[in-house]
Amino acid sequence: MREMICICCPMGCRMTVEKTADGYLVTGNTCPRGKAYAIDEMTAPKRMVTSSVPVDGGNFKMVSVKTAVSIPKELIFKALDSLKGVRMTAPVKEGDVVVKNTAGSGVDFIATRNVDKC
Amino acid sequence: MKRNLVIIGGGPAGLAAAIGAYDEGERDILILEREPNLGGILNQCIHNGFGLHTFKEELTGPEYASRFIREVKARNIEYKLNTTVIKLSGEKRVTAVNETDGLMNIDARAVILACGCRERPRGAINIAGCRSAGIFSAGTAQKLVNMEGYMPGKEVVILGSGDIGLIMARRMTSEGAVVKAVVELMPYSSGLNRNIVQCLNDFNIPLKFSHTVVDIKGNGRVKSVVIAPVDEKLNPIMDKAEEISCDCLLLSVGLLPENELAKQAGIALSPVTGGAEVDENMMTLSDGVFECGNVLHVHDLVDFVSEESAHAGKCAARYIAGKIESGSERIKIGTFGGVRYCVPEYVYRGKASEGIGLKMRVNNVYRKVRIKVVADGVEIAGKNKQIVTPGEMETLSLTAEQADKLKNASDVSVGLEVK
């Protein structure tokens, strides 16, 4: 059994989720969105990971990055580790790949801003 | 120098206002921005979650900003960077300085204040203790980590559970720091639920409600902070105090609209929002001066800032074109039953040609309520809510027909009816 707060709306329902023989039993939710969220969180929680890495010769010192799509929650720290020591050189374009296939997730870290050469 | 429209601030509010004014037909627009880049605070908000309302996708701050910057550039709207406005006079004369132009006096036909807000500092909340190094506002720490590449500390305590504090709890953790606790004075968080879940719970960071920092220790560098629970009157219970060792204290204790220019120009400010009082055109009580975004009232979501500011830009363009009546009679919108404030504060008496959007905040958590607009004792618009909280802004859109009733009543107010 696990307790969680629903993030679908400001209600913030406090829900409990129990594994049953044929799925999950969600209690404490007020609407169907809460149930779907709770089951997602139990079976395949995913998060987008964001950070920033240094960039040389640009109009910003750092370039912000994100995983192109959400990755499994348990890979967050592995993904962040893959950014250690990475430096970019200006120019960088929004969408440029910074680290390919981070933490074996099949997802790339991509730049989320342009950094112009200067 | 003479310009039709001067927009002070090139962050999300200023960008959207410029686009709104341009698309309403105004071409003589100048944006003044004190930082070296457009985009404002979004440049340091590298996390995702922006734009869900506007673009139906989750963007990071820089991505959200770049969509608006592209639109401004596509319209060839002029902007000056590294330019600080040092004075606004009541006659709409804007005094600004930068390295290339020197001192500029710009006489504008309309001015939009889009200067955003700043963080409440330590001095404003009177925390006792040493003045050690290692105490930062959460936003300063965010800039250091995300823009400059510096870590403000290794063992962190965060006071206040505003959204920036929660975001920084996750960010510091992801850069290898240990966040020992987030301490919140109130029994609820002023931050969004999704941030409590994804920034604290995901990383097992404890959130202590009804607690505050009562002492900071450390000569030179912060060595520890003392926290204590508070009673219902928010007074600390000192015999239950505990000491937490740390080398960094981040403050996320509220945002204040940055209204120094408005004050100089003698513009009336609301004691509740800290921003100017405006009418449905986002015009302040000073003719031809408009305000929008976080300088008007602090928003939770940038989407709402963009929407409000586009409206302000549109209205400023209409004002310049002589399409807005000014100086006619205004009615103040009152509040009741737990609504702390409503923006706009005023509406003009007269015919409504379009709808009006009302934004409001409540003073506590209420369940099963009806938010309603009452004109001369009769409800003219309303909606039911399962819950309202101080951390989430509420909105109510009036149709042109409802707005007409609002504009022609002798007594109007917005409030909550608890069911």
Mind sketching the topology for me?
The complex is a heterodimer of chains A (118) and B (419).
Chain A: E1 2-5, E2 14-20, E3 23-27, H1 32-43, E4 46-47, E5 50-56, E6 62-67, E7 71-72, H2 76-81, E8 88-89, E9 97-99, E10 109-111
Chain B: E1 2-8, H1 12-23, E2 29-32, E3 48-50, E4 59-60, H2 61-74, E5 78-80, E6 84-88, E7 93-98, E8 102-113, E9 117-119, E10 135-137, H3 138-148, E11 155-159, H4 163-174, E12 178-183, H5 193-200, E13 207-208, E14 211-217, E15 224-229, E16 242-245, E17 248-251, E18 255-257, H6 260-264, E19 289-291, H7 302-320, E20 330-336, E21 339-343, E22 346-348, E23 356-362, E24 366-375, E25 378-388, E26 394-398, H8 400-407, E27 412-418
Parallel strand pairs in B: 1-2, 1-8, 2-5, 8-19, 10-17, 11-12, 11-17, 12-13, 20-27
Antiparallel strand pairs in B: 3-4, 6-7, 7-8, 9-18, 14-15, 15-16, 20-22, 21-23, 23-26, 24-25, 24-27
User: Helicity of chain B, in percent?
Assistant: 10-25%
Q: How many discrete structural domains of chain A? A: 2
Indicate the proportion of strand residues of chain A: 25-35%
Based on CA inertia axes, which overall geometry of chain A fits? elongated
User: Strands of the largest sheet of chain A, in order across it?
Assistant: 8-5-6-10-9
End-to-end distance of chain B, in Å?
57 Å
Number of helices of chain A: 2
Based on secondary structure, the structural category of chain A is alpha+beta
Strand content of chain B: 25-35%
Number of helices of chain B: 8
Which protein chains make the most extensive interface, counting residues with beta carbons within 8 Å of the other chain's beta carbons?
A: A-B, 30 and 33 residues
Show unreliable segments of chain B.
Answer: none
Count of beta strands of chain B: 27
Ends of chain A: how far apart? 55 Å
SSE order of chain A, one letter for each helix or strand: EEEHEEEEHEEE
Sheet with the most strands, sense and barrel status of chain A: 5 strands, mixed
Name the CATH superfamily classification of the largest domain in chain A: CPE0013-like
**Helix/strand/pairing class of chain B, anyone?**
alpha/beta
Average pLDDT, all residues of chain B: 94
Averaged pLDDT of chain A:
93
Broad CATH class of the largest domain in chain A: Alpha Beta
